[in-house]
């Protein structure tokens, strides 16, 4: 659009200039083909009035940048700006050289004990020590003891199972168990067992049992009155062996007891232990 405006202005200026030239045109001259010498220059005429203002021309191009000026003096220090937001963490740099050793710190707490180490090599035999003071013999504390005597509080117990004598009269070592009716051997050796059973109203067939095997059997017939059946034997027992009394016939269970009239008892005790076992036991105490 600026281009159209410039062309219109240029045409207007040319038209005005032509009109002015016609107005100032000199009178017609007579031209001749005969050469003549040139005439003297005419007097200078006064300047005419200024013409009308022309139209605005097309804008010129931008000029070249000027030369770089000299460096000015350093200005005064400006006010300190606000602290900006922290930037992102940069990549980790290469480790620097090791620094000088710092001062020794305070002693820390004692740590937990470590695991056992490997066994070291066997050392040389040491010198013989001085003879010690003689000890005091405590052989009596090494003597094994085992004895019991028990009674029963109910008549006619169940047949073909251990009779549970639940009345404890004596039990040295507590080797008799009233809940099972069994004596359990603690020391190997020779034991003596006996029983005295009161019977009434029925016959009595009773046996002493060792580890499920009948060792002695006794049979007593009831004559209408109270009677006593007894038996005894010596047996070699090993540790954990079991001994008990048992009614071995179902229809012959005349075992009787009464707190005010009669008792039925089962007893046993250790005569002596196996000497080899006793010697080994003594060595354990030395």
Automatic annotation (TrEMBL):
Query: What segments bear the compositional bias annotation Basic and acidic residues?
Result: 61-79
Q: Which residues form a coiled coil?
A: none
Q: Region entry Disordered: which residue ranges? A: 42-130
Ranges for the C1q domain? 141-277
Lineage summary: Eukaryota, Metazoa, Chordata, Craniata, Vertebrata
Q: Which Gene3D superfamilies match?
A: 2.60.120.40
Which keywords does UniProt give here?
Collagen, Extracellular matrix, Secreted, Signal
Q: Which SMART domains match?
A: C1Q
Q: Which PANTHER family match?
A: COMPLEMENT C1Q TUMOR NECROSIS FACTOR-RELATED PROTEIN 7, EMILIN ELASTIN MICROFIBRIL INTERFACE-LOCATED PROTEIN ELASTIN MICROFIBRIL INTERFACER
Q: Where in the cell is it found?
A: Secreted, Extracellular space, Extracellular matrix
Q: Where is the signal peptide?
A: 1-16
Q: Does the keyword Signal apply?
A: yes
- State the InterPro entries in the record: C1q_dom (IPR001073), Collagen (IPR008160), Collagen/C1q_domain (IPR050392), Tumour_necrosis_fac-like_dom (IPR008983)
Identification of the protein by name: C1q domain-containing protein
From start to end residue, where is composition biased (Gly residues)? 111-120
- Give the organism, scientific name: Periophthalmus magnuspinnatus
* Gene Ontology cellular-component terms listed: collagen trimer
